[in-house]
Design a protein that fits this description.
heterodimer; A: alpha+beta; Ubiquitin-like (UB roll); DNA polymerase, domain 1; Uridine Diphospho-n-acetylenolpyruvylglucosamine Reductase, domain 3; 4 domains; 5-stranded mixed beta sheet; 5-stranded antiparallel beta sheet; 19 helices; 20% strand; B: alpha+beta; Aldehyde Oxidoreductase, domain 4; 3 domains; 7-stranded mixed beta sheet; 25% helix
C-alpha cells in the first residue's frame, strides 16, 4: 500500500485532510489561524497551563467509562500536539460543545458559580471539565478508580490541576465542578455521529503517512514493521508519541528535527503497543510503549499504588493523557519521575529494530550518561516489563510545588525484612535504593544496598545509610535545588523512609485523594 | 460619615457576570483572536545579552525564507517618536525608549529586530534565523542593594525616628532587612497587538488596561493625530498591572502597520512577556521599629530600594501604607533605586503597599515576639485615631473590626504563642500568623453615557475596559438599579476609545470612579425620556407635568398609576419620533490631586494556618481567614473572586514566585510557566473570605471602593508569621523555600 501524503482527522465533527508544510504546525495554531476557532487559547505554549485544552476521542483507555455511546474523550494540550501527532483523531474544541445552541451543564455551572473571571483560561477549563463530567457520570473518578472518588472536591482539584487560573483563586471553579448537573450533562460523544467519523477514519488507517516539506520529513507508520523499516533508512529520526517532551522542546528551545516518526497511528493499529497486562505466571506487568501515563496510573493504582502516587504528581492530567512511560524512559532525564521506581523494581526495556530484531535491556544498564541511552538510532522502545514484588516500596518526589512541577530530587526504596519474633527489631533482608537528581543519570546505590543487608531496621541504621548516600553523590546546583539542599535530601530521605516504614513512625502518609 | 443602609434591588446582590456565556463558549473575542484580511505576522528577535552593543545584524538567511516580507531593525525601521513628558497617566510608559532607538542592549530579551511574514510559522522561523553579533559586557543584575550603601531619598518624615530608635533599649526594638524577588504578573493572556492602518486611521486591538493612555502614547510615538488612532480592547485576559502602560511590542506592531500598509499581528511569546512586559521589581527593605515596653511604637524607619531598568526610574513606593497604618510619633521613610540590566519594572497588583506591608507586617510580628505580646494586641494598641502621615481624619477605617471578626472566625484565642507548640489531629505542627492589609480608595475622572433607543435597547457606554474583574456586569448593575429595569435589559459597551473617556483599570479605582458617572448618565437619560413624554406632540403624556411622570421597569407612567399602566419607553420614543435619547454623566477624580481632606483607604486582616511536618520538612498553607472592609460590595460573586484570587496569588508570592536572574548572561532564567511556579488547584487551602461592608459615601453614592488589590496586601507577611510560629525560622527573603526551614529546631 502506498503512503498517504496527508494527515486525516476530524475537528468538531468536520473532516480535515492536511498535507505539506501545514502538518508541521501545532493543533492550537491550526485551530486558531486556519479554522478561526479561537476559543482554544495559547498561553504558555508548553503544556503547563491548560488554556489550549481540547478533547480527543480516547479509544485506548483501559477504564473507558460507558457513557451514552460508550466512547470517552480525554483532555490534551493542543499547543504541544503537532498535526502529525493527531492522524486518525477526533478533536472537539470548546466551540464543538454546543448542543442545540445552548450552553451545556458544565458551562452553565461555570456561569452560575462565577468560575470565569477574565475568561482567558475558561475555554480550557470548560473542555477539561467536560471530560471530568463524562467520567463523573460514568462513575469513574477523576483520579482513575472508584474508591478514591469519595472526596469529590479533591478529585475536581486533581482533574483541573493542569489548568492555571491567575484570577479566581480557583475556589469558584471548584464550586462549579461540584455544581455540574450530571443528570442533564450531555456527554461529548453524544454530540457527534461517531460511527460515520470512525468509518471515514478507518478508510485511511491502514496507510502510513509520509510528508516532506522543504528539508523536513514526517513519517506516520501504520504498523510496527513500517516503523522499523523507516528507522532503518532514517536512523536517528526523532520519535514523537505524546509530544509532552519533544513538542515542548520544539516550542521552547527551538528544537527543529528534520526527520520525525510519529507513533499516533501505531497506537491505533497495534494493540500490543497500547496494552497493559499482568502476566500472572511471571508476576510481571507488561506495558506497551504507547500506553498513556494515565492508563499506567490507573493500572498501577490497583497493583502498586505507590507508583500510581508518583504518576499522580507526575504532571497534569493533560500531560498524563498524552505522555507515555516509554517517553519518560527515552527522555532519559535524571529527574524523570518514573525512573527511580523502574530502577528498584528491576524493570526491563524491550527494544526492536529491523536489522537485529528484539532485545531486552535492564533499566540500570540502559543509561550510559546524561541522556545517553543504550538505544541504537534505528531502534524503537516497544515495551516495558515490570516485575511485581511484595517488598515495602516507597517513592519520593521533591519539587517546589507538589503538583505540576519538575522534580529537583527523586528517590525509591524497595525493602524486604527478615521475619522476626514479635517485639524484636526486624533485620534487613534485602534493599534496593535509587536516587534521581543527584547525578547525570538515576543512580542505583549498590554499596548502600549491600551494606544494609543484615542490619537492624532502626533509626541508627538508616542514619548510617543516609550518611553513605550523602558521601556517595556529587550533585549540581541549579534552579531546582542547590547542591547542599540535594545532599541534605539524599541524607534525610533515608530518615523519612525509616519513619514511614517503622512501626513507631510518626510521619503520616498523605493520601492521594484527600 | 456613618454607614447608611440603603436598600438596592440589584446593587449588592450576587449577580452572574453578563459576559459569562460568551466566556464559557469561547466566543469572547480577545486581541489575539482578531484576524483581519491581508494580515501579516510579526515576531520580534530578543537580545541574547543583557548589556552591550549590537555589532551587526545578518538577516540574509531570514529574508530569503518563503513568505517573509522583511526583517526590521534599527537600520530600516520607520520613524518612531518619543512620548512627551507628562506627570499624569495620559502619556505614561514604563519603558520610554522607543524600540530600536540605539545599538545599546540594556536588558536580556530587549527587542533588537522583528521579522514580518505571511504566516506565524514563517515569521517565527525567520526571527530564529536572524544572526545578531554583540559586543557583550558583564551585566549587573545583582540583588542585596543595601550592601552598596546607596544614597536614600527621604519620602516622608515626622518627628525624629533616628533619635527615637537610637535611644530605645535593645529589648524593645528590631532592625531587619526583608527582600522580595522580581515577581511577574503572569496574566494568562499574552501581551499582543493587532494593528490596522488605512492610510489615515490606525486601529489598534490591544491587550491594555488603559485604552486612553495607549491611544495617546501610540499616536505620539507614531506621529499621528490622536483623533486618528482608535484603541479597542473588548476582552482582556487580565493584567494585574502588567498591561497598564504600552510596551515595545505594541509600538513595533503599530509602526509596521503604518509603514507596510497591511494589518500586523504581534503576540509576544511567554518568554518575551517575561523579558519585555514588566514585572514587580526585586526589592530590599530595611525596617527599624522601636516601642515602649507596653508596645506603643516610638519609631518606624522604613528604607527601601528596588531595582530599575537602566533608562527608567521606576520607584516601588513601599512606604505608602507605612505613613498611615499605625500611630507613631517618629516615622522616617526613604527610598533609592538600583539601576540594573533588567527590563523595566512596572506596577503589579498593589504596587508599593503589597511589598511594603510584607516587610512592615513581618517586622511588627517580630516586634510582638520580642515584646512577648500577642500580634493582634500589638496592632490594637497602635491603632491611630487619624492619618498621622497627612494629619487628616480617616474617611472610613475599620481595621480593628477586620481583626476582631477574623480572630473570631479563625479561633485566634486558642493560639499558644510558643513556637511549634500547637498540633492538629493528624499530629502535624500548626503555625498561626496574622497581618493587616490596606489599599487606597480613590477615584479617577470618568465619563459615561446611557442610551435609550426606540428599538428598546438600553446601552451603557464607557471608554474603560473590563480586565476580567467584572466591569461589564457592574456597569449593567448600576444602570439597571438607576433605571429600575431588569439587568438583562442592559447592554454595556466598553473597550473602545471612541466611547466617552473612562478610567484606566488600575489602582482598584474603576468601580469607585464610574459609579457617579453611570448613575448620572442613567438618571439624566430617564429624565430626558420623561421630558420627551411630557412635551412631544404625539406623546400620550403631552402636556402632563414631567414631575408627575416616572420611569420604571422600562415603562413611562404617571406616578399616580402602576408602572404597568404606562407606556413602554421604546414605544413612546417611536411614537414621538426619537431614535435615541442619551444621558451623559461624569465624575471628577480624587487621585493625584493636592492634599486630600480625608484619608481614604480600605482595610483587611489575614489569618493564615500552616502545617509543618518537621520529620520530612513539609510545609503547607492549610487554612486562610480573610476579612476585608472595602465598603459596599456591589456584586458579592465577583467580589469573592477578587479576594480569593488575591489570596492564591499571595500563596504564590509567599511560597513559589520569584524571577531568578542568571549572573553571567543577566537573563531571567525561569521565564516560563514550567519554572516560574504559581499555585495550582491542588494548592488551594480552605478559604474563608468575609466582607465587612462599612459603606462610606464620600467616593460615590453606594459607598463602594475597589477590591482588586487589597487581598494581596499583607498575605505574604501573614504566611511568614505563621511559618515562624510553626518552625521558629523567620524567613525574610521571599519566597519561603524549604531549604530555609531546614534549620528549624522544632
Amino acid at each position: 500500500m502506498g503512503h498517504r501524503d496527508f494527515v486525516h482527522f476530524y475537528v468538531n465533527g468536520k473532516e480535515h485532510r492536511v498535507g505539506g508544510a501545514a502538518v508541521f504546525q501545532t493543533l492550537s495554531d491550526y485551530l486558531r489561524q486556519d479554522l478561526y476557532l479561537c476559543g482554544t487559547k495559547v498561553v504558555c505554549a508548553e503544556g503547563d497551563c491548560g488554556a489550549c485544552s481540547v478533547l480527543v476521542l480516547d479509544r485506548q483507555r483501559s477504564q473507558a467509562p460507558v457513557t451514552g455511546s460508550g466512547s470517552a474523550y480525554k483532555a490534551v494540550n493542543a499547543c504541544i500536539q503537532y498535526l502529525y501527532q493527531i492522524d486518525g483523531a477526533h478533536i472537539v474544541t470548546v466551540e464543538g460543545l454546543k448542543a442545540q445552541n445552548a450552553i451545556n451543564a458544565v458551562q452553565s455551572a461555570m456561569v452560575d458559580q462565577n468560575g470565569a473571571q477574565c475568561g482567558y483560561c475558561t475555554p480550557g477549563f470548560i473542555t477539561t471539565m467536560c471530560a471530568l463530567a463524562q467520567d463523573m457520570q460514568a462513575g469513574v473518578s477523576a483520579c482513575g478508580s472508584k474508591d478514591k472518588y469519595k472526596d469529590k472536591t479533591t478529585c475536581i482539584k486533581d482533574a483541573l490541576t493542569g489548568n492555571l487560573c491567575r484570577c479566581t483563586g480557583y475556589e469558584a471553579i471548584i464550586q462549579a465542578g461540584l455544581a455540574i448537573d450530571l443528570d442533564t450533562f450531555q456527554p461529548v460523544a453524544d454530540l457527534y455521529d461517531l460511527a460515520s467519523i470512525d468509518e471515514s477514519l478507518q478508510s485511511t488507517r491502514q496507510q502510513s503517512v509520509s510528508i516532506q516539506a522543504a528539508q523536513r520529513l514526517v513519517f506516520v507508520p501504520a504498523d510496527l514493521d513500517s516503523a522499523l523499516g523507516f528507522l532503518a533508512g532514517q536512523p536517528g529520526a526523532r520519535i514523537v508519541s505524546g509530544g509532552t517532551d519533544v513538542s515542548v522542546n520544539i516550542n521552547k528551545r527551538g528544537l527543529l528535527p528534520d526527520v520525525i516518526l510519529s507513533t499516533c497511528l501505531l497506537s491505533k493499529n497495534d494493540a500490543t503497543l497500547t496494552a497493559i497486562t499482568l502476566d500472572t505466571a511471571s508476576n510481571t506487568v507488561i506495558i506497551g510503549a504507547l500506553t498513556s501515563l494515565k492508563n499506567v496510573e490507573a493500572f498501577f493504582a490497583e497493583h502498586v499504588p505507590e507508583f500510581a502516587r508518583v504518576l499522580w504528581v507526575f504532571g497534569s492530567p493533560q500531560i498524563r493523557n498524552a505522555g507515555t512511560l516509554a517517553g519518560n524512559i527515552a527522555n532519559g532525564s535524571p529527574i524523570g519521575d518514573s525512573l527511580p521506581f523502574l530502577f528498584v523494581a528491576g524493570a526491563t526495556i524491550d527494544v526492536a529494530s529491523q536489522a537485529r530484531g528484539r532485545r531486552s535491556v535492564a533499566i540500570d544498564a540502559f543509561y550510559k550518561g546524561y541522556k545517553q541511552l543504550d538505544l541504537a538510532p534505528d531502534e524503537l522502545i516497544v515495551g516495558i516489563r515490570v516485575p511485581l514484588t511484595q517488598e515495602i516500596l516507597r517513592l519520593y518526589k521533591v519539587s517546589r510545588r507538589q503538583h505540576l512541577d519538575i522534580s529537583g530530587f527523586t528517590a525509591a526504596f524497595a525493602l524486604s525484612l527478615e521475619p522476626t519474633a514479635m517485639g524484636a527489631v526486624p533485620v534487613i533482608k534485602k534493599l534496593r535504593v535509587a536516587l534521581g537528581g543527584v547525578a547525570a543519570t538515576v543512580l542505583r546505590m549498590r554499596q548502600i544496598e549491600d551494606r544494609a543487608v543484615g542490619m537492624t531496621h532502626d533509626a541508627t541504621t538508616w542514619a548510617i545509610l543516609g550518611e553513605m548516600a550523602r558521601s556517595a553523590i556529587d550533585p549540581l546546583s541549579d534552579v531546582r535545588g542547590a547542591r547542599d539542599y540535594r545532599l541534605t535530601l539524599a541524607r534525610n530521605i533515608f530518615d523519612k523512609f525509616y519513619l514511614e516504614t517503622s512501626e513507631t513512625g510518626t510521619a503520616p502518609r498523605e493520601p492521594i485523594c484527600k | 460619615m456613618p454607614a447608611k443602609n440603603i436598600e438596592h434591588r440589584i446593587i449588592g446582590k450576587a449577580t452572574d457576570r453578563i459576559d459569562g456565556p460568551l466566556k464559557v463558549t469561547g466566543q469572547a473575542k480577545y486581541t489575539s483572536d482578531r484576524h483581519l484580511p491581508g494580515m501579516l505576522y510579526a515576531v520580534p528577535v530578543g537580545a541574547t545579552i543583557a548589556n552591550g552593543t549590537i555589532q551587526s545584524i545578518d538577516d540574509r538567511e531570514a529574508r530569503a525564507l518563503p513568505g517573509v516580507l522583511g526583517i526590521y531593525h534599527r537600520g530600516n525601521i520607520g520613524q518612531i517618536y518619543r512620548v512627551p513628558p507628562d506627570k499624569g497617566f495620559d502619556f505614561k510608559t514604563d519603558e520610554a525608549r522607543p524600540p530600536f532607538e540605539d545599538d545599546t542592549v540594556r536588558y536580556y530579551g530587549q527587542f533588537v529586530a522583528v521579522a514580518v511574514a505571511e504566516t506565524l510559522e514563517a515569521a517565527t522561523d525567520a526571527a530564529s534565523r536572524v544572526k545578531v553579533q554583540y559586543q557583550a559586557q558583564t551585566p549587573n543584575v545583582k540583588g542585596r542593594f543595601f550592601e552598596e550603601n546607596p544614597k536614600l531619598k527621604v519620602e516622608s518624615e515626622r518627628g525624629n525616628a533616628t533619635e527615637a530608635f537610637t535611644n530605645a533599649t535593645a529589648a524593645h526594638k528590631i532592625e531587619q532587612i526583608y527582600s522580595s524577588p522580581a515577581q511577574f504578573h503572569s496574566a494568562i493572556e499574552l501581551h499582543g497587538t493587532v494593528a490596522d492602518y488605512d492610510g489615515r486611521q490606525l486601529t489598534v486591538y490591544e491587550t491594555t488596561q488603559a485604552i486612553g493612555t495607549h491611544r495617546n502614547v501610540i499616536a505620539a510615538m507614531l506621529g499621528l493625530d490622536v483623533q486618528n488612532v482608535k484603541v479597542i480592547s473588548k476582552f482582556l485576559g487580565s493584567g494585574f498591572g502588567g498591561k497598564l502602560w504600552p510596551w515595545t511590542h505594541s509600538v513595533l506592531a503599530c509602526t509596521l502597520a503604518r509603514d507596510l500598509g497591511r494589518p500586523i499581528k504581534l503576540v509576544n511569546t511567554r518568554k518575551a512577556v517575561f523579558h519585555t512586559s514588566g514585572h514587580r521589581p526585586e526589592i530590599e527593605q530595611r525596617i527599624r521599629l522601636s516601642a515602649t515596653p507596653q508596645g506603643h511604637l516610638t519609631s518606624i524607619q522604613h528604607d527601601y530600594i528596588n531595582h530599575a531598568a537602566m533608562l527608567d526610574k521606576y520607584v516601588e513606593t513601599c512606604g505608602e501604607a507605612t505613613k498611615y497604618f499605625y500611630s507613631c510619633p517618629n516615622v522616617k521613610i526613604s527610598s533609592a533605586v538600583a539601576k540594573r540590566n533588567v527590563g523595566s519594572p512596572t506596577s503589579m497588583r498593589g504596587p508599593g503597599a503589597v511589598p511594603g506591608l510584607f516587610a512592615t507586617e513581618s517586622a511588627l510580628d517580630e516586634l510582638a515576639i520580642k515584646l512577648g505580646m500577642d500580634p493582634v494586641q500589638l496592632r490594637i494598641i497602635n491603632e491611630p485615631q487619624k492619618d498621622e502621615g497627612l494629619d487628616i481624619p480617616f474617611a472610613s477605617r475599620h481595621l480593628l473590626e477586620c481583626y476582631k471578626t477574623g480572630a473570631q472566625k479563625f479561633g485566634w484565642d486558642k493560639r499558644n504563642p510558643k513556637v511549634g507548640s500547637m498540633r492538629n489531629n493528624d499530629g502535624l505542627i500548626l503555625g498561626w500568623g496574622t497581618a493587616g492589609a490596606g489599599w487606597i480608595a480613590e477615584r479617577i475622572p470618568a465619563q459615561a453615557s446611557v442610551e435609550l433607543g426606540h428599538d428598546g435597547s438600553i446601552k451603557v457606554l464607557c471608554g474603560t475596559q473590563d480586565i476580567g474583574t467584572g466591569t461589564y456586569t457592574i456597569l449593567a448593575q448600576i444602570a439597571a438599579e438607576e433605571l429600575k429595569v431588569p439587568l438583562d435589559r442592559i447592554e454595556v459597551k466598553l473597550g473602545d476609545t471612541t466611547l466617552p473617556p473612562g478610567p484606566l483599570s488600575g489602582g482598584s479605582m474603576v468601580t469607585g470612579s464610574v459609579i457617579p458617572a453611570v448613575q448620572q448618565a442613567a438618571q439624566t437619560a430617564a429624565k430626558l425620556v420623561l421630558s420627551a413624554a411630557a412635551t412631544a406632540p404625539n406623546s400620550p403624556y403631552n402636556g402632563v407635568d414631567e414631575k408627575e411622570l416616572d420611569f420604571k421597569d422600562g415603562m413611562v407612567h404617571r406616578k399616580s398609576e402602576d408602572a404597568k399602566a404606562g407606556v413602554p419607553f421604546d414605544q413612546l420614543l417611536k411614537t414621538c419620533k426619537y431614535k435615541v435619547i442619551t444621558g451623559k454623566g461624569q465624575s471628577a477624580g480624587t487621585f493625584g490631586g493636592g492634599k486630600p481632606k480625608e484619608s481614604r483607604h480600605s482595610y483587611g486582616a489575614h489569618f493564615v494556618e500552616v502545617t509543618w511536618q518537621p520529620e520530612t520538612a513539609r510545609l503547607r498553607i492549610n487554612r486562610v481567614v480573610t476579612v476585608i472592609d472595602a465598603g459596599k460590595i456591589l456584586n458579592p460573586k465577583a467580589g469573592r473572586n477578587q479576594i480569593e484570587g488575591s489570596i492564591v496569588m499571595g500563596m504564590g508570592m509567599a511560597l513559589f514566585e520569584g524571577g531568578r536572574y542568571e549572573s553571567r548572561l543577566g537573563a531571567p532564567i525561569n521565564s516560563n510557566f514550567a519554572d516560574y511556579v504559581m499555585a495550582v488547584h491542588l494548592d488551594v487551602p480552605d478559604l474563608d473570605v468575609t466582607f465587612l461592608e462599612f459603606a462610606n459615601t464620600d467616593l460615590n453614592a453606594y459607598g463602594a471602593r475597589g477590591i482588586g488589590e487589597i487581598g494581596l496586601a499583607g498575605f505574604a507577611a501573614a504566611t511568614c508569621n505563621a511559618v515562624y510560629h510553626a518552625t521558629g525560622v523567620r524567613v525574610r527573603d521571599l519566597p519561603i523555600r524549604i531549604e530555609d526551614l531546614l534549620t528549624s529546631q522544632v
